[in-house]
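User: Please fill in residues for this 434-position structure.
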């Protein structure tokens, strides 16, 4: 039997709790369900589910299945999402599948399949929407963007850009979002939706500030000594600014097929109050698009930095296989760029063994876990925060995060440089896109 992934146990239990008419954000019902399906080694711990009521409701069909079957279907869905993202990127860029697939396998599959995190799903939906946009399939693109709302913070900037820049999609997007709002109201009423918006979102961002797996601006500011609420506020402001910047960038690079939603997707997963590595892989489709149009080797350096899940690879490569996948990605990039296969393979092997060596030299450090007594009616984040505080950043925390953000910065730099170059020529209009 395939072991149950901890994130999926939370999704499964939240959907089951909601289907029973109880509150999926509360510690008591979540904890009671999760301990039946996933062994949590620490007393009083629970895994929260920071999803809106409609997203939890969409998972209810899985919760009706026995856990082993539901877990297997979930893992198949995550793997299929990575494949779909690779297919979309190949269609949009003309790059070979082996190259795109190797990079996305390293960035998306290892952690997602290890933890059960749903990050690959919205990235796949948005990437497929980009392909639909290039074919003027407005309704299909709108439905796919609506499906991406399973993680609203990932989907919002692409939806905003599509609404502003694609007049043919405005009515369709409004209809899709109205259906999601109606579903959310039907399954969660006003109270549960208000609880999600006013309590769950800010509390979850605060509960994750201490985990080394966070790549949000808020977490980085927290590590620098900024007060928790101020860090979350600044991360939220930066997210809003980048959502607007995503619309501007999408408009500037609108001649690049699919950029209307993929440029803001890259902005959506940069910083903010909450983002993990599987979501950060959402910047890669846009990076591939920029690399396919730019002759600069910097583009491939950026892709190399983004496709390696540094924190996951350094902290747990023996379990996740991240080191091996990272080495394969390096080999694929170098081979595509014309490096001799022997040298490409050597570089890939050095990458993989180097990550494994660093993992041994700088092991994960754990603080003493303090297990407070949590009232059943408390938010699950009250039990999650002390568990996250137990995970101490190792000596590689700074380079782990720096490499990823250098890669993101290079992608945005090249995109802006590309828009400056193309602004000196006439940018062709894509039908239906302003």
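Assistant: Residues filled in for all 434 positions:
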């Amino acid at each position: 039997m395939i072991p149950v992934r901890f994130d999926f146990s939370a999704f499964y239990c939240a959907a089951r709790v909601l289907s029973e008419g109880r509150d999926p954000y509360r510690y008591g019902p979540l904890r009671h369900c999760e301990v039946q399906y996933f062994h949590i080694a620490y007393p009083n711990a629970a895994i929260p589910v920071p999803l809106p009521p409609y997203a939890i409701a969409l998972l209810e069909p899985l919760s009706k299945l026995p856990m082993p079957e539901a877990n297997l279907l979930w893992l198949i869905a995550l793997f299929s999402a990575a494949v779909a993202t690779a297919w979309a990127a190949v269609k949009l860029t003309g790059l070979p599948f082996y190259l795109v697939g190797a990079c996305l396998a390293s960035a998306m599959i290892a952690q997602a399949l290890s933890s059960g995190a749903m990050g690959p799903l919205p990235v796949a939906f948005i990437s497929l929407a980009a392909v639909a946009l290039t074919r003027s399939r407005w309704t299909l693109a709108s439905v796919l963007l609506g499906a991406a709302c399973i993680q609203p913070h990932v989907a919002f900037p692409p939806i905003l850009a599509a609404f502003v820049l694609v007049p043919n999609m405005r009515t369709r997007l409004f209809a899709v979002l109205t259906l999601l709002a109606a579903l959310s109201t039907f399954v969660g009423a006003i109270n549960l939706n208000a609880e999600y918006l006013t309590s769950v979102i800010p509390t979850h961002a605060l509960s994750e500030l201490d985990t080394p797996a966070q790549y949000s601006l808020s977490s980085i500011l927290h590590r620098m000594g900024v007060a928790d609420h101020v860090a979350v506020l600044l991360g939220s402001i930066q997210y809003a600014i980048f959502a607007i910047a995503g619309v501007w960038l999408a408009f500037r690079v609108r001649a690049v097929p699919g950029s209307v939603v993929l440029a803001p997707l890259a902005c959506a997963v940069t910083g903010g109050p909450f983002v993990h590595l599987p979501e950060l892989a959402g910047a890669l489709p846009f990076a591939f698009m920029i690399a396919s149009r730019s002759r600069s080797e910097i583009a491939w350096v950026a892709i190399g930095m983004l496709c390696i899940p540094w924190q996951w690879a350094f902290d747990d490569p023996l379990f996740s296989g991240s080191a091996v996948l990272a080495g394969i990605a390096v080999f694929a990039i170098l081979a595509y760029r014309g490096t001799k296969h022997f040298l490409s393979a050597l570089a890939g092997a050095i990458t993989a063994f180097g990550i494994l060596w660093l993992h041994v030299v700088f092991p994960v450090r754990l603080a003493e876990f303090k297990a407070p007594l949590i009232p059943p009616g408390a938010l699950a984040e009250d039990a999650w925060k002390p568990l996250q505080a137990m995970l101490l950043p190792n000596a590689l925390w700074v380079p782990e995060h720096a490499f990823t953000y250098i890669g993101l910065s290079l992608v945005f730099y090249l995109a802006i440089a590309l828009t400056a170059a193309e602004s000196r020529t006439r940018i062709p209009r894509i039908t239906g896109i302003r």
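For context: The chain has one domain: 81-423.
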